[in-house]
Amino acid sequence: MKAAVLYEIGQPLRIQEVPDLRIGPDEILVRTKACGICGTDLHIREGWGYTPELPFVMGHEPAGVIAEVGSNVTRFRVGDRVVPNIFFTCGHCFYCRTDRETQCVNLDGIMGVLKHPGGYAEYFKIPARQLFLLPRTLSFTEGAVIADAVVTGVHAAQRGRVRPGETVMVISTGGCGSAAVQICKAYGARVISVVRSEREQQRARELGADEALNARIVDIPTAAKDLTEGSGVHCVIDAVGSEETLSESVNSLCRGGRLVILGYTQERYALDPRQIAVHELEILGTRSGGRQNTVEAIRLVADPRWKSIVAKEFPIDQVNEAHECMREAEALGRIVLTFDSSTSRIS
Question: Where in the chain is the domain with CATH 3.90.180.10?
């Protein structure tokens, strides 16, 4: 089968033939139809964050059609349209039993990130327990972004305990940020989007943000206070995680406010412990999402009110160009790789 393979840190991926995948009795083989690109993919190529053993097939945001099922699989059949949850969890530790699966103490890897090859290939395999049916009303490109961008937004909103009537600030209109804006609106919050260009402001409004602030023009904490009668926002979801955005986030919170750190960079931000303690602020991490988050993500994207977060599509042969497009922040939303529907090793 054809795949885009990472052989060396800092180098382009190579498009080549790799050995066909073989499945076990509890696994399913899926023919990839589309696969989203995430910032984590760029981090892996750059050699920081996750460090899989090379050579490696990345891609943790795929959707496709079942090509083969293992002998023990009864819930799915060949031809089903599916999207995965990408975390290979044990299913029985404390975190798996309390809807915190991404913190599984026996985690066996992450599809397209650690140990298990991902969706930058014509096929991927995964345990049946990690697969979910994709509604026929959704395209494969829309379905692919569910696996990470939307799941991550759902988990972030739930980690931040977003409630109706609250004011939530979402930093970024990238893939996860675009999803988070819509998710928080769906949960009944007033949403302030923080961006860094007029083009992004327009996009934030299209996604449903009540306010869109350009951080290059206004002071974000001041603007946040102005929009909340001086109190600040209840929750910030920071999908960037730079020193600048973390400072904006903390200083925009109301007393008792919650900061959810969704994105991250290699930058560091020094917190003021007095500010955190006196104002009883909460700082929360969030990491992708578990299987129940996948169910919720599918529900949200299948809702007719959902607006696509897919900004551009590239064929898999142009994966390196797609990565460069993401690196240069040319797309407002998710970039998705597509696969030739005529290609299949199983008739």
Answer: 2-148+289-338, 153-285
CATH 3.20.20.70 fits 2-148+289-338, yes or no: no
Residue 346 pLDDT level (bands cut at 50, 70, 90): very low
Q: What residue has token string 């759902």?
A: 154
- Tens-place pLDDT, residues 281-329: 999 999 999 999 999 999 999 999 999 999 999 999 999 999 999 999 8
Rounded Cα distance between 190 and 165, Å, is 7
Specify whether the CB–CB gap between 162 and 116 falls below 8 A.
no
Architecture of domain 153-285: Alpha-Beta Complex (3.90)
* Mean pLDDT score, 154-174: 97
**Stated pTM of the model:** 0.94
Residue 65 near residue 82 (C-beta atoms within 8 A): yes
| Mean pLDDT, the chain, integer | 95
Question: Three-state secondary structure along the chain?
Answer: CEEEEECCCCCCCEEEECCCCCCCCCEEEEEEEEEEECHHHHHHHHCCCCCCCCCECCCCCEEEEEEEECCCCCCCCCCCEEEECCECCCCCCHHHHCCCHHHCCCCCCEECCEEECCCCECEEEEEHHHEEECCCCCCHHHHHHHHCHHHHHHHHHHHCCCCCCCEEEEECCCHHHHHHHHHHHHCCCEEEEEECCHHHHHHHHHHCCCEEEECCCCCHHHHHHHCCCCCCEEEEEECCCCHHHHHHHHHHEEEEEEEEECCCCCCCCCCCHHHHHHCCCEEEECCCCCHHHHHHHHHHHHCCCCCCCEEEEEEHHHHHHHHHHHHCCCCCCEEEEECCCCCCCCC
Rounded to the nearest angstrom, the gap between the alpha carbon of residue 330 and the centroid of all alpha carbons in its chain is 18
User: How far is the C-alpha of 142 from the C-alpha of 303, rounded, in Å?
Assistant: 12
CB atoms within 10 A of CB 225: 17
